[in-house]
Design goal:
The complex is a heterotrimer of chains A (309), B (365) and C (393). Chain A is mainly alpha-helical and 309 residues long. Chain A is built from 11 helices and 4 strands. In chain A, helix 6 packs across helix 8 (194-220) and helix 10 (247-271) crosses helix 11 (281-295). By secondary structure, chain C is of the alpha/beta class.
Chain lengths: 309, 365, 393
């Protein structure tokens, strides 16, 4: 029993961590290239979930085959989010590229507030049930249990990460992205169209956000216009934990944060003799983060480079 | 009366500030005096954060924690929670001192971190403090947990409580007005301290660190101590503001100290103009007033424009607020009223450079 | 330029100060009294933006409906025909914002306030209503501290945490025979309050609390604490919190293969709980102060009219808001005045048959001996199980 519970907690942590990792990738890609915390990223995840919900509902009502409906709604969410990511960068970040560092942080917060309230006006204040037309069967892993959706989340997360690494390391676009991240001025001199690369980065990150939004909604079966904020915050923490700007770091950070949270919430009460409980779950997560940063100030996989001004 | 003489100008400003609550009251009503009171509290907070972010260049996303420490110190020592009703002149400085200690405690482990790493760690500390306040009702009940602490003593000196209306000099002055004057006094004090700090040796050291930490260190600045001092000073202001907040509100609970509050204070500093006291004050005033103005203005405005209320004003309020944040930053990336020094650094265009040379030339002549 | 603007300002100031002083010397309450004024303003405050906006809007709808009903009826107070007007404010579930909107309502010279929705906003706002002598009826704030402040103007039309938690705890331990109980709360004033009272009462009834776990009112993932609870094999799990958490929670609980009984408070007695939790909601117990609608005179009618008017089901507290407004109007009619000082004493004396229950207040302003009904989800619907009298005050 004790082993089963432990295995279950590990599974919980990996599932949750995969979601964090997907969202964290969006933060880290933008940061790697622009050195900017895209605070609005969590809201992009929310928009992805909302669009997927709307399209999925419409398709299911029109009796489209479940698998096709899921695929189409996911694609629709990705398309909308990519457009949104492109738009956010053009409107709120590009004009401020040479402005003081904190200026885009404020516009990001502004974008975040605007998106949240627009979503509230479009999709309403209530919580929506996210329909899942497939059988979400339980599978026993010894005494532990995993659902179809959870398996899908982990698999999709792994696939997306592999694809992303492939794009960044094996394609022209990826090479351009790395060049801009390394030295924008030099990249420009080498004929890289910086604006296009940055737009592409935002769109890629937003597409990942849409995937994450879809998977979170499918897993919890509930969507709300406020869902992006906490998720974004956790994913940002994960990105920093892994070393912000580093793709593998974001994946590692996401998985670690998921595991820390689930093991922390699961065992902190018994370990501290009941003094601390799962109410200190977030404290525990932040403590680990702070401890890591004290010993490795640039995160687990971050490079030790002098900070940009 | 020659208004361009500084002494006279100060006199005029003093006069305006003195009668301001009455003007607000007669034009807009009591509600706006309360908003003005909150604006003053936020200005104190923003000025405190300005020391950390604006002067020393350390991005702090958990600043509201110090506000919380001040507020809870006041609440615990001046409410039926422990049956303690300590005098305000003990509790307020104690809250400020505790906040200052927390500032150093939180600052110390983060000294090696920079920029965004510092941001996430301070964010973490802010959340940790809030979570502790939310949960320290068991096993021993200290903060009363999520229920918060109610029936907090109003701000008072001896028997004179400003929690009720008073007859002064033949004028009937409400509690809101009295709070305004008290908060104004503290705000002016904070402004004064900020100004003195800005032009002091320490202030220059902070700015040197902000511009280039390595160079500052090479110039013989003890960066560790100077950074800690920035955290401590900023936290102290936050603590004072928090204590006043607890006495004003009469109730504190952890939900008043969420991350969103830290972000709002940061917005005030950046939007107004980092490092410039006037700008920060302006930012504080605007960000407190804007959402309220939208709350009251959105309905009638739609009525005037479309002849009907098309969109629920309440939904529109935050939307407009978000839009305002974006537009202002796009329009003035360095803030509405940036410090002269930073403006020169950020916009090294011909005219400014020329003006600068001219002034230099004028002076030497 | 500077000189110009400064002197203009100075010129503007003088008359303003004079008017300000004049205004101060007037008695503030004069306009608030019934007098010859036939419009009576009722203030309402609830979160209309933010994560609980869907519940806040529901509150506003209930209040508005009561006011429109009263206007349609043509109520007479003190021999004069009156018209009621709603002044609705958004407190954003923020205690600070609550005091600002409270001040706004006072400024708007409302004759009474229906609100706020949450305990965390109701308590700080009550100080302002109290200082201005305005009666306040909260439809849904259940924290014990709200009416324990010694204010004479505060009321609520819902059983408090202590009353409700006690009934739930007894039911779990005695009727359902749970011996080992796990308790989760969302660390809000409401969730923690009701969970603590539940624990006290369940322990007093002989049950053992084998796990006390926590989450937050923003969380959607509960697998970690649920797994931990699964390992301790309880007979029943109690959750103190609202439906945005309880719905995914019960879903994840069943997803972990746990068949334990799930019980929660009034915050989950909503249509969206069933909608969002789907099949996993089956068998969940929840309590709601009051008597089932179909047993109340006018209850069924209220539900039908609400749904026709707002094109959506009642979320949660709309009927309580409806009752709160009617209680206030009732007291005004009995006093023959809408002036707060005049009708406030009537509030304590009246007995009002509302759509949720028969409402009468005790000396603190709490609901007197209000009934509490336990519901269970059966075949995808909330079905009443048993109505119990609230335990003694």
């Amino acid at each position: 029993m004790i082993v089963d519970i432990f295995v279950q907690q590990i599974i919980n942590g990996i599932v949750q961590g995969s979601v964090y990792a997907l969202v964290a990738l969006g933060y880290t890609m933008v940061y790697g290239i622009l050195g900017l915390i895209n605070f609005a990223h969590g809201e992009v995840v929310m928009v992805g979930a909302m669009v997927a919900l709307t399209v999925l509902q419409a398709l299911l009502a029109a009796a489209v085959a479940p698998l096709l409906a899921i695929l189409l709604s996911l694609l629709a969410a990705m398309a909308v989010c990519m457009a949104l990511g492109y738009g956010i960068e053009r409107v709120a970040y590009r004009p401020l590229r040479n402005a003081p560092r904190l200026a885009p942080l404020i516009t990001a917060i502004g974008v975040s507030i605007v998106l949240q309230n627009l979503a509230m006006m479009i999709w309403g204040r209530e919580y929506h049930a996210f329909p899942l037309p497939l059988d979400n069967a339980l599978h026993a892993l010894g005494g532990a249990i995993i659902t179809n959706v959870q398996i899908a989340i982990v698999l999709v997360a792994v696939a997306v990460m592999a694809l992303l690494l492939l794009i960044v390391h094996r394609t022209r676009l990826g090479r351009a992205m790395r060049a801009v991240a390394e030295n924008p001025a030099a990249a420009m001199l080498m004929g890289v169209d910086i604006n296009r690369v940055i737009s592409a980065t935002f769109m890629l990150g937003s597409a990942l956000a849409a995937v994450a939004g879809f998977m979170v909604s499918a897993n919890y079966g509930i969507v709300h216009y406020y869902m992006g904020f906490m998720l974004g915050l956790k994913a940002f923490t994960a990105a920093v934990l892994g070393g912000i700007g580093n793709l593998r770091g974001a994946m590692l950070g996401g998985l670690l944060l998921g595991l820390i949270e689930s093991l922390g919430a699961g065992y902190i009460g018994d370990l501290s003799g009941g003094f601390f409980g799962s109410n200190y779950q977030d404290v525990f997560a932040f403590m680990v983060l702070i401890a890591v940063l004290i010993f490795r100030p640039s995160g687990l996989l971050g490079e030790r480079v002098a900070e940009r001004a | 009366m020659k208004l361009h003489r500084p002494a006279n100008r100060h006199l005029l400003v003093a006069l305006v500030l003195l009668v301001l609550p009455f003007i607000i009251d007669s034009l807009f009503g009591h509600g706006w005096v309360r908003i003005a009171d909150f604006a003053l509290l936020y200005i104190m907070l923003a000025l405190g954060l300005n020391i950390v972010v604006g002067y020393a260049g350390l991005l702090d996303l958990g600043y509201i924690a110090f506000f919380a420490v001040g507020a809870y110190t006041y609440a615990l020592l001046g409410s039926p929670q422990f049956g303690l009703h300590w005098p305000v002149w003990v509790v307020l400085p104690l809250g400020a001192l505790l906040a200052c200690i927390f500032g150093v405690l939180l600052g110390a482990p983060t000294l090696r971190l920079r920029g965004d790493y510092l941001a996430i760690v301070t964010l973490g500390f802010g959340e940790i403090i809030r979570i502790f306040m939310n949960n320290l009702n068991a096993p021993v009940n200290i903060t009363n947990g999520p229920q918060g602490i109610s029936m907090i003593d109003p701000l008072h000196v001896g028997d004179f409580s400003i929690g009720q209306r008073h007859e002064l000099f033949g004028l009937d002055i409400s509690s809101l007005h009295l709070h305004y004057y008290l908060f104004l006094g503290f705000t002016l004090l904070v402004v004064l301290v900020s100004r003195r700090l800005e032009n002091s040796r320490i202030g220059r050291a902070w700015m040197a660190i902000r511009e280039d930490e390595v160079a500052a260190s090479a110039m013989g600045i003890n960066t560790r101590n100077v950074k800690l001092l920035a955290f401590a000073m900023g936290a102290t202001f936050g603590g004072i503001s928090g204590g006043l907040f607890a006495g004003f509100q009469g109730f504190v609970s952890p939900e008043s100290f969420s991350l969103m509050e830290s972000i709002m204070v940061l917005c005030m500093v950046v939007l107004g103009g980092m490092g410039n006291i006037g700008g920060v004050v302006l930012g504080g005033v605007l960000l407190v007033i804007l959402p309220e103005a939208f709350r009251h203005g959105a309905g009638p405005l739609q009525q005037a424009l479309f002849g009907a209320v098309v969109v629920d004003p309440e939904s529109l309020r935050m939307l407009l607020f978000g839009l305002a944040l974006i537009l202002v930053m796009l329009w003035r990336p360095a803030g509405l009223w940036p410090s002269a020094q930073r403006r020169r650094e950020l916009a090294p265009d011909e005219t400014v450079a020329q003006q600068e040379q001219e002034t230099v030339y004028d002076h030497s002549r | 330029m500077k000189i110009y603007s400064s002197s203009v300002l100075a010129a503007l100031l003088v008359p303003l100060i004079l008017t300000a002083c004049n205004k101060q010397s007037e008695p503030a309450a004069a306009e608030a009294s019934g007098g010859s004024d036939i419009t009576i303003k009722i203030g309402a405050a609830a979160p209309l933006t933010g994560p609980q906006a869907h519940l806040g809007k529901d509150n506003e709808n209930g209040t508005r409906m009561a006011i429109e009903d009263a206007n349609a009826k043509g109520i007479m107070i003190g021999g004069k025909k009156v018209r009621f007007e709603l002044v609705s404010e958004d407190d954003q579930v923020d205690p600070k914002m609550a005091t600002i909107v409270a001040q706004n309502l006072v400024d708007a010279k409302v004759n009474g306030v229906i609100g706020h929705m949450n305990s965390g906003t109701t308590i700080p706002a009550s100080r302002i209503y109290h200082d201005n002598g305005i009666p306040q009826i909260s439809p849904s704030a259940t924290a014990v501290a709200y009416t324990a402040q010694g204010y004479d103007n505060v009321f609520r039309v819902m059983a408090n945490d202590s009353q409700q938690g006690r009934v739930l705890g007894e039911f779990a331990a005695k009727k359902l025979g749970a011996k080992k109980i796990a308790v989760i709360d969302d660390r809000t004033a409401y969730g923690q309050g009701i969970a603590d009272e539940f624990v006290k009462s369940a322990e007093a009834s002989g049950a053992q609390i084998i796990a006390r776990e926590y989450t937050s009112d923003r969380a959607v993932d509960f697998t970690a604490v649920l797994t931990s609870i699964k390992g301790k094999q309880p007979d029943l799990i109690f959750f103190g919190g609202m439906d945005p958490q309880s719905a995914p929670m019960v879903k994840q609980l069943r997803g972990l293969g746990v068949k334990t009984q799930f019980m929660t408070g009034d915050g989950s007695y909503t249509p969206s709980f069933i909608q969002n939790a789907g099949a996993a909601s089956e068998g969940t117990y929840a309590s709601l102060p009051g008597v089932p609608f179909d047993q109340m005179p006018g209850g069924k009618d209220f539900v039908a009219r609400y749904e026709a008017k707002y094109k959506q089901p009642i979320q949660l507290y709309a009927p309580y808001c409806y009752d709160a407004v009617n209680v206030m109007i009732d007291a005004m009619q009995k006093a023959g005045s809408a002036e707060p000082a005049k009708y406030l004493p009537e509030m304590r004396k009246l007995v009002h048959d509302g759509v949720t229950a028969r409402i009468a207040f005790d000396e603190k302003g709490d609901l007197k001996g209000g009934a509490i009904t336990l519901y269970q989800v059966r075949e995808g619907k909330w079905q009443p199980v048993q109505t119990m009298g609230a335990a003694q005050q």
